[in-house]
Design goal:
The chain is an alpha/beta fold. It has one domain: Rossmann fold (3-Layer(aba) Sandwich), CATH 3.40.50.300. It has 10 helices and 12 strands. The strands form 2 sheets. An 8-stranded mixed beta sheet has the order 6-7-8-3-9-10-12-11, sandwiched between helices. Strands 2-1-4-5 form a 4-stranded antiparallel beta sheet, covered by helices on one side. A hairpin with a 2-residue loop joins β4 and β5. α6 packs parallel to α7. The longest helix is centred in the middle third of the chain and has 18 residues. The protein is globular, with a radius of gyration of 20 Å. GO terms for molecular function: ABC-type nickel transporter activity; ATP binding; ATP hydrolysis activity. It is found in: Cell membrane. This is Nickel import system ATP-binding protein NikD.
């Protein structure tokens, strides 16, 4: 059963199209990695899950359903209840996501209610020092602040945690520690995770499924080991081949040639066509429909033939 369903979602920002008919599903207890280049629409899709989009954003089509509730159609009181009961969010900048004027303990009490055991929730994210509770956000390191944000997001036992590049600002050692905290807490609580990330090897190791975004659409989705180890969409293959974290020592990286599109309306065909080495004439004017290839769902006219087999970059295959 799907906890989250996104259907044909279209979001525009003042003449720029961020989502161009995005589709995504996350099942109860499932971990899904959402990957793609900057500008592909990941953050917009993640924010749309909780209707947290900026005021400039406009939805013209599609829907988001969380736990059976149509997110964009809910009145304010029911939307607040949905967020409180079903959703948790962890964002890129841990300091900015916390209130700079309040001590950490007071912020947790706002979430949990007075009388709550704040120390227990900080202990779950490996922050056992009582000084953390009395500290202001600016007095914490980036890793500590992100753990506080995770504690707040998980304190109410959400069914779905949306993590938008939660370790982007952290060094590699702290990054692994923070991810371990996120995924262990979620596993213990049965919480689903939608993880927006550029780190393909980490996504391959930690996620059940992967959804690949390009040009405001999810162009490939399926089991992590299949999508990243045996991609059916040319963009997925190019993205995996350009991942610095996945490259073996001495192996030359092949960047995805060209530039990501800046859409002002619906893409007339496949948005990846100008950069695709396998593009056909119809790719420019005919929007691809989903095709099932093995265990993957793919938006590509070539998908039934698959892309030429290549050895996946070292470290990407789970």
């Amino acid at each position: 059963m799907s906890l989250l369903t996104v259907r044909n979602l279209v979001i525009d920002y003042a003449g720029t199209r961020a989502l161009d008919g995005a589709d995504l599903e996350v099942a109860q207890g499932e971990t899904v990695g959402l990957v793609g280049e900057s500008g592909s629409g990941k953050s917009t899709l993640g924010s749309a899950v909780g209707r947290l989009l900026p005021r400039a954003a406009r939805r013209s089509e599609g829907e988001v359903v969380v736990a059976g509730e149509p997110v964009f159609d809910l009145p304010a009181d029911r939307l607040r209840r949905l967020r409180r009961k079903h959703l948790g969010f962890v964002f890129q900048d841990p300091i900015a996501s916390l209130d700079p004027t309040m001590r950490v303990g007071d912020q947790l009490r706002l979430v949990l209610g007075r009388g709550a055991d704040v120390g227990f929730h900080l202990g779950r994210v490996k922050l056992d020092d009582p000084r953390v509770m009395r500290a202001y956000p600016h007095q914490l390191s980036g890793g500590m602040a992100q753990r506080v944000a995770i504690a707040m997001a998980m304190a109410t036992g959400p069914e779905l945690l949306v993590a938008d590049e939660p370790t982007a600002a952290l060094d590699s050692q702290v990054r692994e520690e923070v991810l371990n905290v996120v995924f262990s807490l979620a596993a213990a609580a049965g919480t689903s995770i939608l993880w927006l990330s550029h780190d393909l090897p980490a996504v391959a190791r930690r996620c059940d499924r992967v959804a690949v975004m390009y040009g405001g659409r999810v162009v490939e989705t399926g089991p992590a080991r299949e999508v990243l180890g045996n991609p059916a969409h040319p963009y997925t293959a190019a993205l995996a081949g350009s991942a610095p974290a996945a490259a073996a020592h001495g192996v030359r990286l092949e960047p995805v040639r060209g530039r990501p599109p800046v859409l002002t309306g619906p893409s007339p065909g496949c948005a990846f066509a100008p950069r695709c080495p396998f593009a056909e004439e119809r790719c420019e004017h005919e929007r691809p429909e989903p095709v099932r290839v093995g265990e993957q769902d793919v938006l590509c006219h070539r998908a039934p033939r698959r892309i030429p087999a290549t050895e996946p970059p070292n470290g990407v295959r789970p």
